[in-house]
Structure formats: structure tokens, C-alpha cells
């Protein structure tokens, strides 16, 4: 049986195991970051296996992974790692099953989980049993851009949509404030909190900003070209790292000395999964940098691969092809889902064969080392 390949959508890390959803289908997959092996763990409970761009964000909570949807019509889901099973996360005080809030940022503090729905002026507070216990309505005239946020102890810093504004939310007191930073041409994108300061990027340039909330001082450093955009900001104790969208690069800058270094991602632009054939000659938007074992595991919005960058030797070490065989275990999972939703009717073998033929993708062997 042929393999299928796809790009990473959302992820959650559990030690050396990286759980992730796909941009191109409704499978849940896991990468062993020690052995570099990938396998399909389960199938999200939806009819169309080839549905795309379903899962926006993920958060590990104890032995569960919470997933927020990319689109409003799909529910938020909780995946139990031990039981290998899904359950819905409700958004209604009446506990009726409701569609999820799309592309949420999620954070845990103590025994509560906080969900920050994009384009909404509210914050949802849950207990660890996935029960909604509080809604905090924000009395401000801006929407939240919750694809990104910075967390410092009990505080979350949330960029306001398409503006230079930031919402500061206290997860203990549930109090919040709204501040504007710099000039109106800044459109805050990614953001992290490092040693008392907020570092953030802007949507309209490849510049890294530093803002001290106490001193109210803003500084700026140019990282890439005017056409670039900084994403996936990370801190290793001395340097800030990130990706440069539209340039297929990563960078690091020392927060004390201000030195900047860049590395080109050794991209293979073809073949690509179905979701990005139209971007064959464009940037592949390397979105996530995941920290494990003195390395960054870098994923793309569109390329079916994970690149491994060694922070000790400062070089790319591996390219992991996201290419999973449709083995007998996956066929069994598909059959369970098809029976659950009534896709298989009288001739199960025939229907299953036709269904599998429909979802097969042949992308070839794409594994290499540098």
C-alpha cells in the first residue's frame, strides 16, 4: 500500500514524543524525536479523511492534549494519551455540545486551563475535567489575535488583532489591562516574555522589538529583509531564536550583545503535499521551532518535513520526511471511524477498499541527512 505525506498543523510535546495533527487529513500522528520514527496514532472523528486545516492549536494538559479547531463549525477536542481516545470540550454552561472557538491560544495555570478565542472579546476558564467554569468578557474595543501569546508566571500577554496593542491578563485575579506599544504601523505578530521584557515581531517587516513594561522603553533590531516576517520566537537562556517567513531562514540574536546570525533552511521544494502544490515555487513558511535535546525541530505550514537544527554545532542535522505507511493498524482505525459514522454499509470490504483508494497519495522517499 502506498504512503501518504502531509504538513504539520498543530503540535503538543510529551517528552521525546511529538504529537501533531496534519494540514492535509484528519490523522493524529506522533514523532519519536529520539528514533525519528513517525506513526499514525488515531483519526480525528470526522467523515472526510482528506479534510484540511482543521486544527489550529494544541496544549498538553497532564496526560491529555487539548486541540482547538481552525474553523468554528468543528468542536474543540481532548485526546487522552493513555487511552488513545478523543472526547469533546464543551463551550456552553448547559453542557450542550457546541462548535469550538477557532484557532485558540491556550494556557494552563495551576489546576485551570485558559482558552483565548481568536476574534472574540472573551476568555474561557476550564477545570482539568474539561468543564467550563468561567467566562471573562473583555470590555475593550479590540479583538484578540490569539495565534500567539507570551506567558510569564500568572500573566498572559495577548496581541490585539492587526494593531500595536497588547492585552495583559492575570490568570489568578482575572483582571486585565490594554496597552499600546510604539507607533500604529506596528502590527504585533509573535511575542515572548524574556527577563522582564516583551520581545515581539511585526506583520509588516522582519524586525524584532523589545519592550520593557516597567520602563515603557521600546527598542528595535532589523533581522531580515523588508519582505520578511519573523515567527516562532524562542529563548534558550541567552539567545532569541526564530524563523523568517518568506525567506526560509532561521536566526538567533544574543539579547546582551545584539549579534545576529542566520542559517538557510536546506529546503526541498518538490514534491509537496496536496495542500501546497499551488506554492511550489514560493516560501514554505517555517512556522514552529520545537525544543528537544539541544536541537530545534522546525516545521512548515506547507512542506511535508521536519528539519532538525543542532544548536551545539549550529548546523542542520536531519530532514525528517512526514510520510506514513497506511499499514494494517491504520486501516483498522479507518474502519472503526467509518463504521461509527455509517460510511461503511453493506459490502464493508468493498467500501473500505474504495475509501482507501480515494485517500492514497504517492510522494516517494524524501528522507535525507546533511
- Main sheet summary: 5 strands, antiparallel
- The residue ranges in which pLDDT falls below 50 over 5 or more consecutive positions are 93-97, 270-281, 340-348, 355-370
Strand content: over 45%
pLDDT average, as an integer? 79
Number of strands: 31
Structural class: mainly beta
N-to-C CA distance: 29 Å
Give the overall form.
Answer: globular
Strand order of the largest sheet: 26-27-28-29-31
Radius of gyration: 21 Å
Helical segment count: 2
User: Percent range for helical residues?
Assistant: under 10%
What layout of secondary structure does this protein have?
Elements: E1 3-5, E2 8-14, E3 17-22, E4 27-32, E5 37-43, E6 55-61, E7 64-69, E8 76-80, E9 85-89, E10 105-109, E11 112-116, E12 122-127, E13 132-137, E14 150-152, E15 155-159, E16 165-170, E17 176-180, E18 188-194, E19 197-202, E20 205-212, E21 217-222, E22 229-235, E23 239-245, E24 249-254, E25 260-264, E26 286-292, E27 295-300, E28 305-310, E29 315-321, E30 323-325, H1 328-340, H2 348-359, E31 368-369
Antiparallel strand pairs: 1-30, 2-3, 3-4, 4-5, 6-7, 7-8, 8-9, 10-11, 11-12, 12-13, 14-15, 15-16, 16-17, 18-19, 19-20, 20-21, 22-23, 23-24, 24-25, 26-27, 27-28, 28-29, 29-31
